[in-house]
Here is the input.
Amino acid sequence: MADRQRADDPLVIRQLEFVGGMAQAGGWRPEPTLPEIAFAGRSNVGKSSLINTLLRRKKMVRVSNTPGRTREINFFRVNEAFMLVDLPGYGYARVSKEARASWKPLIEGYLRTSPQLRGIVQLVDARHDPTKDDLGMLDFLADTGIPTILVATKTDKLKPRELSARLGELAAVAGVEVEDVLPFSSATGAGRDELAEAMMGLLDQPHWRDVAEAGE
Ligand code: GTP
Ligand code: MG
Here is the structure.
């Protein structure tokens, strides 16, 4: 069961608080005192659902019937220890051109300027090839060197055999090993503990910007 807590749960939620939303590049955001992990992916890929599953809350983050729902960058404080950052989904065609154009500076601005950012959980739909925007995002992440956890969502919609073929294809397109693509389903809870563990691993590592600077 998705909601049953295991004795060895890598992420037990003891405290959880919505801190606020950042609406535009350079706008309000919480003081960057805690480490941050951000969640990125195209609109409707299942980001908000995945965060709810991760936090074992049914409705902490609003799940959209209307794609393109999450417009702001939303910050959630977890266990007084780190911040989860829900980025707006990119690439939804039916919102206005202006709204679409404003996402890129907002998301890229956040990713470039957040001193406590420790990593990104990048979501792609397990059923489809990555979109042009997905590939652009993966390139951007590789360029900046931000540690990335690649997650394939909605795996409950595929049969096991289809799923393993799709994971192989996704890994090839993304240029990673297939073991580095984490299958996930908010419908069944599959992948929840593995993702939590991978995130805790990122939080334990020295800051990637410091590592990059030390190597220069
Ligand atoms: P935006 O906020 O619009 O960018 O979307 P999002 O990426 O946050 O997606 P959201 O979590 O709102 O989910 C979009 C739709 O996909 C909803 O109808 C969810 O119920 C559905 N969905 C999300 N995750 C899963 C999953 O693992 N399995 C299945 N079958 N459906 C899912
Ligand atoms: Mg959302």
Summary: The two ends are 47 Å apart (CA to CA). The helical segments are 47-55, 97-113, 132-144, 160-174, 192-204, 208-214.
